[in-house]
Automatic annotation (TrEMBL), chains A, B:
The species this protein was found in: Caecibacteroides pullorum
Domain PurM-like N-terminal stretches: 33-145
EC number: 2.7.4.16
Reactions the enzyme catalyzes: thiamine phosphate + ATP = thiamine diphosphate + ADP
Native organism taxonomy: Bacteria, Pseudomonadati, Bacteroidota, Bacteroidia, Bacteroidales
Name the record gives this protein: Thiamine-monophosphate kinase
């Protein structure tokens, strides 16, 4: 079944995709259908705004990413940025650029993923914009969230002796990407019906294809009354993000290799690919876990917290940023994190 | 002079482009440099959000659009959407996707245009995101504005007997586009140093390349105490926008051909191109003028207003939407407005 987008037109397509969307949040006064969305936030809230531009061939490869997953992930990575400010995502706008390759059914899939993410995180879609593109799929999502006034957590508040915490585990999304890229290369030119065997590697694929934002961690921190001094989400790799926090907070850090949380499947895959496991966890990217610092007085509260690991501490700036290996050696941390402008992105699809 | 973007990297480029940006608005608490921007609006304000995605080859053609103008226009069209809600633009975020064709100096030009627009309209740049693209230039801008609570003007408030008003004049931006397209075709294959002669057509080019948002009209309406019942900005053409207002307000309208404001240069160009002038003014698009309705009691206030023309009135829905020609005939209005999904955009650059 393939319905050409031209049969609906721009406005018809938006109407079709956004049909039945009902605002759930009190701060959403008017959603799709006018020159702008209208929001209303009480005076004790701060309004948080983040935006992400995703381009086919650079940020995603549709040969192995299902459109529904792509929609889900595109929304969730924006929610993650709002949680990383200690806020709650409330609204998103979605702009799409589509080439003729895409039909109405494709956009239904993509939107189904976006809507699923919005339901799961209680976020309203308040704006939609669709236009034609000559070059694949472009997705631009802006997310608006709220935070309690005075409770917003920035990257620049880490203090000497603060503890460094990370949620979940690292490197799995990167390993999932390697796995998908390998299968893509293997399957090139072979029978399209061959299904790759991902048994035992489901976690890696899920981390790459359907990441979640750590709403639960923010809630747990609130519950025990811990206010992080600095926080960000890990999208470019632990090393890169740690260096952002340290440079913006004007401090140094010590991180212990043995404490970096890594899943068993990630370790098995690194072995299979003959990659250094710690390097993968430090520089892999797309983890969407939270990296945060807390005062040392909160040690017990975070040490016992489900899904949170203490990986090191903040130091004086003169000491720099270093990794302490299992055998006690000190290495300077380097942000070799995923830099899409340096290496042309994380996929290998030249299209220009 | 050409500096490759890779020499700065993603973060370096953003730092470079946004250097020296200081927030001017009280509602901007924290701009570029964290996971999200932090805004704070008082409780008597509504927060307005609009977004626009611009793709090279679809929305702009760099063979005749200078990057600085493109940046200016990309920002201003978003401001226009906020004014069209009876609001004031306050913040924007800017996401860019760049292919290797672009260098640091190109991005300086683009950003110079965006920053110029932000200075002219007193708007803060609070977020920037840059990534590589395989396919030309992608610009995604989100604008946040504020409106007085209860004073926001939607498209759905027009009432029977309301007067229909439009600011400025129509069709000039479309004629400017035709002119640029013609010169591009003429110059194809000729000496690149040949400079086209645009003497006497400056206004058309300015309307196409450097449109302004009608902040002044909003201020004039406030000053005389006129609150429009419905309003939107004209981006897809008067016909299309009138039909949006009428269908969302569940009313009809009568518009008089003789009252549609058209500049002398637009008329001359239409003659030269052998185009129907009224059709150009009705369906041209990209005017970024304001279309609004006011109660008939405000007749005198708007009739005398500089830069505003009365072009018709709102009717019962049963009467439909019609244009009354100079010779008194009635034609049903049709939205043949610029639909980028139907005709593949307003330029002719196939790139896929």
């Amino acid at each position: 079944m393939r319905t050409e987008i031209a049969t609906l037109g721009e406005f018809g397509l938006i109407d079709h995709l956004t049909e039945g969307i009902q605002p759930k949040n009190e701060s959403t006064r008017y959603g799709i259908g006018d020159d702008a969305a209208v929001l209303s936030y009480p005076a004790d809230k701060e309004v948080l705004v983040t935006t992400d531009l995703l381009l086919e061939g650079v940020h995603f490869d549709l040969t192995y990413v299902p459109l529904k997953h792509l929609g889900y992930k595109a929304a969730v990575v924006n929610f993650s940025d709002i949680y990383a400010m200690n806020g709650t995502p409330k609204q998103i706008t979605v702009s799409l650029g589509l080439s003729k390759r895409f039909c109405v059914e494709d956009m239904e899939e993509l939107y189904a993923g976006i809507r699923l993410a919005c339901e799961a995180y209680n976020v309203d879609i308040v704006g939609g914009d669709t236009c034609s593109s000559y070059t694949g799929l472009t997705i631009s999502i802006t997310c608006i969230g709220e935070g309690e006034k005075g409770k917003t957590v920035y990257r620049n508040g880490a203090k000497e002796t603060d503890l460094i915490c990370v949620s979940g585990d690292l490197g799995a999304a990167y390993m999932g990407l390697q796995l998908l890229e390998r299968e893509k290369a293997v399957l090139k030119g072979t029978d399209k019906d061959v299904q790759p065997d991902f048994a035992g590697k489901e976690y890696l694929l899920e981390r790459q294809l359907k990441p979640e934002a750590r709403k639960d961690i923010i809630e747990r921190l609130h519950k025990v009354g811990v206010q992080p001094t600095a926080m960000m989400d890990i999208s470019d790799g632990l090393s890169s993000e740690l260096m952002h926090i340290c440079s913006q907070s004007k401090v140094g850090c010590r991180v212990y290799e043995e404490h970096i949380p890594i899943d068993y499947q990630t370790a098995v895959m690194a072995e299979e690919f003959n990659m250094n496991l710690t390097t993968c966890a430090l520089n892999g990217g797309e983890d969407y876990e939270l990296l945060f610092t807390v005062p040392i007085a909160d040690h017990e509260k975070v040490a016992d917290m489900e899904g949170v690991k203490l990986i090191g501490h903040i130091t004086k700036p003169e000491l720099g940023c270093a990794l302490i290996t299992r055998d006690g050696q000190e290495f300077e941390l380097k942000a070799q994190g995923w830099n899409p402008l340096k290496n042309g992105g994380n996929t290998t699809e030249p299209a220009e």
